[in-house]
Every structure is written in structure tokens, then in C-alpha cells.
Design goal:
Length: 380
């Protein structure tokens, strides 16, 4: 009876399906206002206290859902400054509001301009300044604090990001290599929110992998939800491109692309969105080798996959990249059957370790020699 009543009282008439509920929040708009300045005391020259400020502070393990839970109205205001009195000529400053936000936040103003990045634990950004207190310069009348609407845009920070067209098998692959449980189905766009999985190795090493919703041609121009998805690739250390061995066709109205053309098309979308993405180490996975005829098809296209530069001229102009990704590994897999998954997991670690070694600068041997040189008398 209680269940029936709750259904009848529910204004929408039906509950939201579980996989459509907002499990992952990557964008949030907040209205922030600094505290009003306190009034001065004209007779004796007293100065009002400055209004408090609103700060964003990066915090590990925090999510935008935590921000919404703590500030359900999405309006944040700092305390006003204290008025000047006979007892206290200099009014107290208003209390600041320090809002914890996830690490990886980009702060965007009303015009769409990037005004701050919070990429490290403890990093602070002044979201709204407090108003000055009343003094002789403003007729002893406290001024209002800064007020504006800001967007907190979260970009996932992961070791590797999965990139591919819809139904390429990204979610199945993520489930095969980690304990993540993304929605999996035989139709495109089953992943509508980014998913994060962790690869755990026997020596307790952990590597995070982000499964991004499937791209479509034109994603770089924000067709579909292109920028909403592509932004998460920016903060991954490496890229894992996944392509269906038999190609992909979004709908009967769209042209069918072969596996090789899909690789070029993904390369092109990344290049047009942000050319610096092509400098990241990358792995290419050709998926669905469990299907009939897949092994023969892979043997046929494998030579072309290893010489993409020579074949790019034959690629249709609309998906032809100017600069190609330099794949560290090209592997064939079946994410559904778990074929060669262990080999891929080992290669992901190898590529990340190789990239980390390249980032370490060569030691200055001359400087180290000078630093370690012995001074004073020596014992012979």
C-alpha cells in the first residue's frame, strides 16, 4: 500500500531508470557573492570591516555531488563586515566561505572564459571578493561584495582514457580489466556518463582508466556532446583507442566506415579538438576478434595498421588527419571473451612506465660531482 501511494504521489508518474540517474556530475553552476562591507562611523572616522570572500579549495576524494549536497541552493554568500562603533572603530572583517571542490576543476565565468584551474590538492581560487568597508573615500558607506555565476567544470584525471566510436566495446573492455560495472548492451551510446575503473596488479600497482562515452564524427565541433566528452581526454596520461574490426555505421543515414577509416577518423577528431593530444603515448586495440571472420579480416588490415602514414592518402578527405598518432602498441583483442586482455593490461603498464622515464630529465653529472666533492684534508 505504501509503495502504491508513493507511486501515485510521484508527480512525474514514473521513476527514472537507474542508468539514467546522474551518478556522475561533471559540471555545476554556482552563484557566489562576497560579503557586504560594514558601514563606517563618520563622526570619529571609524572604518567598517571588509566583507568576507568566497574561495574554492581543491580537495582530493571530493566530488561535485558533495558540493551540491553541502550547498543545495547553489547560492553561496560570505558574511558581511562589521559596522564601526564607538567601542570598535575598525569593524571586524566578515567570515570567509571556503568551498571544497574536487581536484581537476576548471572555473568558467559567465562569458565562457577560463578564469582558474584547481589541479592540485589545497590549491585555492578566489571566487568572489568581499566589499570594502565604509571609510572617508566612500562616504563611510560599506560597499556590496562581488557577485557572479561561475561554472565548475570537472575533467577526469586518469592514467589512461578509452577513446572510440559508439559500440566499439569500450565498456566491455573496462569491465574486463577492472572491477567497474558499466552498462553494456548491443546498441550505441550505452555509456552516457564517463566511467572510471582501476587496474590492480599483483604487486599492488594501480592504474586508473576512464571510459568516455562514444564519439561521433564532428565531436571536435561539439556535435552531439563532443566537448563534454573530449574534455576528459585532456588530463589522461595516455590514450587507448578502440576500434571495431568490422567498422562502424551510426545509422542507415550515415556512411559506414571501415576499421582503418575509423582509426583515421578518431585521430582526426582528437587533432581538431586539441592537437597536443596527439603527443600523448597511445595504444590501438582492434576489438571483437571473437566474431566469425574477424581473424582473417585482422590479418588483411594488420600491415596497413602498422604503416598508417602510407595509407593516409587513400583516406576520405573529411576524416583525413594531418598529423598521425604514434601508436606504441597495436593489439587485437576480444573484450567480450577476455582474449589477450592480460597482454593488454601488461602493455598499458609498460607504455606508462616508458613515458614516465622519458619525462625524467637527465641528471647534471657535473653539478652532482661539484656537490659531492670532498673539501678539507683527506686521509690517505
Amino acid at each position: 500500500m505504501v509503495f502504491l501511494t508513493s507511486n501515485l504521489l510521484y508527480s512525474g508518474g514514473k521513476f527514472i531508470r537507474k542508468h539514467f540517474r546522474p551518478h556522475f556530475l561533471d559540471s555545476l553552476r554556482l552563484t557566489v557573492t562576497g560579503g557586504h562591507g560594514g558601514n563606517g562611523f563618520p563622526k570619529i572616522g571609524g572604518v567598517g570591516g571588509q566583507g568576507g570572500c568566497v574561495y574554492f579549495v581543491a580537495k582530493e576524494g571530493y566530488t561535485l555531488k558533495n558540493v551540491v549536497k553541502a550547498h543545495s541552493t547553489k547560492r553561496i554568500k560570505a558574511a558581511a563586515g562589521e559596522d564601526s562603533t564607538k567601542v570598535r572603530l575598525l569593524g571586524r572583517r566578515g567570515n570567509d566561505q571556503r568551498i571544497s571542490v574536487p581536484v581537476g576543476i576548471t572555473v568558467i565565468d559567465e562569458t565562457g572564459r577560463n578564469i582558474g584551474d584547481l589541479n592540485e590538492e589545497g590549491k585555492t581560487f578566489t571566487a568572489a571578493g568581499g566589499g570594502p568597508g565604509g571609510c572617508s573615500g566612500n562616504s563611510f558607506i560599506g560597499q556590496p561584495g562581488q557577485s557572479r555565476t561561475l561554472t565548475l567544470d570537472l575533467k577526469l584525471i586518469a592514467d589512461a582514457g578509452l577513446v572510440g566510436f559508439p559500440n566499439a566495446g569500450k565498456s566491455t573492455f573496462l569491465k574486463a580489466i577492472s572491477k567497474a560495472s558499466p552498462k553494456i548492451a548491443s546498441y550505441p551510446f550505452t555509456t552516457i556518463k564517463p566511467q572510471l575503473g582501476i587496474i590492480e596488479y599483483t604487486d599492488y600497482r594501480q592504474i586508473s582508466v576512464a571510459d568516455l562515452p562514444g564519439l561521433i564524427e564532428g565531436a571536435h565541433a561539439n556535435i552531439g556532446m563532443g566537448h563534454k566528452f573530449l574534455k576528459h581526454v585532456e588530463r589522461t596520461r595516455m590514450l587507448i583507442l578502440i576500434a571495431d574490426i568490422f567498422g562502424f555505421q551510426l545509422s542507415p543515414q550515415h556512411q559506414k566506415r571501415t576499421c582503418l577509416q575509423n582509426v583515421y577518423a578518431l585521430n582526426r577528431e582528437l587533432e581538431l579538438y586539441d592537437p597536443t593530444l596527439l603527443e600523448k603515448p597511445s595504444i590501438l586495440l582492434i576489438n571483437k576478434l571473437d566474431l566469425e571472420g574477424a581473424s582473417e579480416e585482422f590479418e588483411r588490415i594488420q600491415p596497413n595498421l602498422h604503416r598508417l602514414e602510407e595509407q593516409v592518402a587513400e583516406c576520405p578527405e573529411e576524416i583525413r588527419p594531418r598529423k598521425l598518432l604514434n601508436f606504441e602498441r597495436i593489439l587485437s583483442i576480444s573484450a567480450k571473451e577476455g582474449m589477450d586482455i592480460d597482454r593488454v593490461v601488461a602493455n598499458i603498464r609498460e607504455v606508462l612506465d616508458e613515458a614516465a622515464e622519458e619525462d625524467v630529465p637527465e641528471p647534471d653529472l657535473e653539478r652532482l660531482t661539484r656537490k659531492n666533492r670532498e673539501y678539507g684534508p683527506k686521509v690517505v
